[in-house]
Amino acid sequence: MNEMIAPRRAARLTGRIDPVAIEAVTRALAARFGNQLVTSQAVREQHGHTLTWTPNEPPDAVVYAQSTQDVADVVKICAEHLVPVIAFGTGTSLEGHVNAPLGGVSIDLSMMKNILAIHPEDLDCVVEAGVTRKEVNEYLRDTGLFFPIDPGADASIGGMAATRASGTNAVRYGTMKDNVLGLTVVTAEGEILKTATRAKKSSAGYDLTRLFIGSEGTLGIITEITLKLYGIPEAISAATCQFPSVKAACDTVIETIQTGLPIARIELADALTVRAFNNHAKLGLIEAPMLFLEFHGTEASVAEQTQRFGEIAEAHGGGPFQWATKPEDRSRLWQARHDVYWAHQTLRPGVRPLATDVCVPISRLADCVTQTARDAEESGILAPIVGHVGDGNFHCGPLVDVNDPDEVERVKNFLERLVRRGLEMGGTCTGEHGVGQAKMKYMLEEHSPAALELMRTIKRALDPKNIMNPGKVVAV
Amino acid sequence: MNEMIAPRRAARLTGRIDPVAIEAVTRALAARFGNQLVTSQAVREQHGHTLTWTPNEPPDAVVYAQSTQDVADVVKICAEHLVPVIAFGTGTSLEGHVNAPLGGVSIDLSMMKNILAIHPEDLDCVVEAGVTRKEVNEYLRDTGLFFPIDPGADASIGGMAATRASGTNAVRYGTMKDNVLGLTVVTAEGEILKTATRAKKSSAGYDLTRLFIGSEGTLGIITEITLKLYGIPEAISAATCQFPSVKAACDTVIETIQTGLPIARIELADALTVRAFNNHAKLGLIEAPMLFLEFHGTEASVAEQTQRFGEIAEAHGGGPFQWATKPEDRSRLWQARHDVYWAHQTLRPGVRPLATDVCVPISRLADCVTQTARDAEESGILAPIVGHVGDGNFHCGPLVDVNDPDEVERVKNFLERLVRRGLEMGGTCTGEHGVGQAKMKYMLEEHSPAALELMRTIKRALDPKNIMNPGKVVAV
Q: How distant is the alpha carbon of residue A95 from its chain centre?
């Protein structure tokens, strides 16, 4: 090791950064990046933006990266001066992931939009981090292939990998952890590495791919992703089915999963959410709890799945079904589902919904959802529920007037009870949104002190200067 | 930190251990474990046993652990004296994973056979590390559920997790990384932790589960595993189909995977292997390349899959099919496949087959297999090929007279070329056997220096004393 830099390597960021360091970094970035560097107030605030009530904590500067090398260069410059780097994709995260609580430089990857390779014969493709999920599928349109993971927002693939995202198709196709073959990552030292080959499986060493997936930019920055692709099913059939109660809908889901029916999507919307869909997308539905369903397969297998599901639903009082086999009808249905965040806003105009999520073992789903609905009612909170219930994962989005301190307090307590309920049922404090800033307080409740300390050991080892998205996940 | 122990914490094992340390550890273990501690030559050698030509390097002592706490206590005692600990399951690893090159204590987990919980309603179960895959399925027999991962040997679930094992069902059900919800792990400091809840998915922090899966006991010791289970398919149909060439068989596999046919098993055996099956299990097959197949689903979907596969196979000159729908016929077929290591020995009695594996992107499968077969022929080596070809993964088991130095040299060179061929085709040096000692030399070729250094950083951080199965995977 070079003795000149040894003392500096031992230094690490422990609080708000030194303004002198920021000035030095900004100067160096301006020299290297010209007008890819932006320091205007508006752009900085946009990069600390959040859809929730987490306060905006803007970075000191934003660099629009155009390549992995750009990202590496920003990290190297920041590492030299102990200045934080925060990766930014589309800004749709929900738990304060992109905030800059200590200040620092936001690396905006949204211009990294190259599809680097498509290997239809291997059912994979390689994309830059700024490509969004819809752009991937747009690009694949003529190949007969698709990429299934679909968080509500049209998020960037890099952000989806960094938060271990999933969405409506996860019940059949898994989450980002199951659908990434390998990553290109920029480390905390500004080194560029690949985590894996394109082989479908490997036992050759530690699973670096899965280590970075879900690490929320705290261990390194994901710049390229090799994604698994799937053939577009020969037959797709979508439907909605209404139920007398949320419990009846959940029990239908539980039985569907337990019988191994390979359903592609099974989504719950409670009566409040159905009203919101009617408001927002004019779906004209009866305001009762509902499942959104989709079946993938051959014509014969879709017909068979549909029939079997119908029998299960009927036994729980479900029906009638509304079918959508035409692509445009299906799109309308799923667009409504994906726009739920905006739909929920129609329930109480001018007030923000706060999206949060928990995930429990499927056998506890009905209990968790019904107890949560009862808690909301008893607390006088308008809290619509929607969820990827096939995985035991659901979202609850209380509508809260942030100018009413009493209401804010009630909602905060309600959300704490929701997470604790999920944990007590053997679940997790977040199924797919990630930890960010807002769920850090639950990490110790979910993980034992030893497990959390192990995460911190990894963080300290991979980011000894504590510059990679500091103050998030396991802040050390 | 306690200042008294601070200096010791900085020490780490860098070569063969001090005999005085071994003596101290053995004394402490004897006091704690009584006759669970064994130091006889025969038992020590059995714990350095390997099915390959890797030399036997026995540990200094063996402790038969009966609980997670036992494992933690052994690790604590060894950590105090800088003595290596090597986890041992059933001893069926193929790359020298259980050897003790620096000496140390082997922790035999084979007595940890408790099934701790079965949650049929959540499709999961919790088992101790010493339970074997067949024992899991035996236990599940009356539940209608099964655990699909099946490496050839009846390996322990702990060992399978530690090596990221897979097997014949991986093409449909994935590998150990896809089928473990969470682990109980003993760390290098002898702490006990759980890596995850039983929720089907989570975004709550770093993926500790996947970090330990495939880490081969070098970061911690897996003592309990929460496994995903599946409903036994309503219909199962198995078949063999023969082909005019290995290339025709591989091309059939490639097309099957590319069309998205959800085949449960698709295994290649070359003509040599078919002869070996005939010798070993009296299958009475024509000695031509063959695929072993299995279809899972409803009656209707199995019929449909079978028909579609038949069309693909026929287009590549495959046939006739031999069907096995009765459970006992299927068992006979798959037992023959799982016994391939022993079957191969019949091709040249008295000589050992050396099992190795590579895995390539599916589009390169036919090239890789045919080039390998040609290489064997040109090198005058008897090297039967068999593989989980649906994943692009195959095994090559040269039969080598270890007393013939010229032949040993030729086989070594042949195996190096095989791995390089796999890597050049975008594959991995091991699809499922793991790195152990024997594949360490390829780690730098497969991973970049930066990626390998990252693995070493993790190893140093989690095992600062270098006592967890040292000299394996990324030896630091």
A: 10
Domain boundary among A172, A201, A231: A231
A48 in a structural domain: no
Q: Tell me how far apart the alpha carbons of residues B164 and A205 are, in angstroms, rounded to a whole number.
A: 9
Question: Rounded distance, CA A26 to CA A12, Å?
Answer: 19
Write down the ipTM of this complex: 0.95
B442, A204: Cβ pair inside 8 Å? yes
Interval A300-333: pLDDT, tens: 999 999 999 999 999 999 998 988 888 898 888 8
Task: State the count of interchain CB pairs (< 8 A) between A and B.
Answer: 278
Residues B240 and B330 in one domain: yes
Residue B290 lies in a domain: yes
Which band of pLDDT confidence, cut at 50, 70 and 90, is reported for residue A178? very high
| B207 and B316 belong to one structural domain | no
Single out the residue of A80, A106, A49 nearest to residue A221, CA to CA.
A106
- Bridge partners of A225, per DSSP, are A127, A183
Question: Which residues lie across from B61 on neighbouring strands?
Answer: B105
Structure tokens at B330: 């299927």
Angle at B22 (CA atoms; ends B21, B28), nearest 5 degrees: 90
Q: Which two tokens stand for residue B379?
A: 């090198």
Q: Residue A9: its pLDDT value, please?
A: 45
Q: B427: which 2 tokens?
A: 């594959």
Sheet holding B180-187, edge to edge: B115-119, B124-128, B220-228, B180-187, B192-194
pLDDT tens-digit series, residues B405-460:
999 999 999 999 999 999 999 999 999 999 999 999 999 999 999 999 999 999 99
Instruction: State the best of B198, B206, B299 to mutate against chain A, taking most chain A CBs within 10 Å.
Output: B206
**Amino acid (one-letter) located at B37:** L
Name the residue among A307, A304, A336 with its Cα closest to residue A321. A307
| Residue in A124, A166, A454 nearest the CB of B187 | A454
Task: Note whether residue A435 is domain-resident.
Answer: no
Measuring CA to CA, which residue among B219, B290, B213, B221 is closest to residue B252? B290
Chain-chain contact of A197 with B362 (C-beta, under 8 angstroms): no
Q: Which domain, by its residues, includes B171?
A: 115-231
Residues A268 and A415 in one domain: yes
The CATH number assigned to the domain holding B299 equals 3.40.462.10
Residue A107 domain flag: no
pLDDT at B119 over 80: yes
From B189, B212, B231, give the residue that closes a domain. B231
Residues A346 and A377 in one domain: yes
> So what's the pLDDT on residue A1?
36
Q: DSSP state, B390?
A: G
Same domain, B208 and B349: no
Q: pLDDT grade, residue B2 (50/70/90)?
A: very low
Indicate the residue of A124, A201, A446 with minimum beta-carbon distance to B431: A201
Distances (CA, A) of B171 to A99, A180, B149, B167, B390: 41, 16, 10, 9, 6
pLDDT of res. B373 = 96
Report the percent of chain B where pLDDT is more than 90.
Answer: 85
Length of chain B: 476
Number of domain units in chain B: 2
The answer to whether residue B216 scores a pLDDT higher than 90 is: yes
Q: What is the pLDDT of chain A when averaged over all its residues?
A: 94
Do B173 and B265 belong together in one domain?
no
Q: Before B262, cis peptide (omega within 30)?
A: no
B175, B201, B312, B473, best to mutate vs chain A, most A CBs in 10 Å? B201
A391-395, A453-457, B45-49, B452-456, range with the lowest pLDDT: B45-49
CATH of the domain at B218: 3.30.465.10
Same domain, A216 and A254: no
pLDDT band per the 50, 70, 90 thresholds, residue B5: very low
Task: Report CA torsion sign: B137, B139, B141, B143.
Answer: negative
Q: Residues A243, A331: one domain?
A: yes
Residues of A in contact with B439 (CB under 8 A): 204
Token output for B430: 């091991």
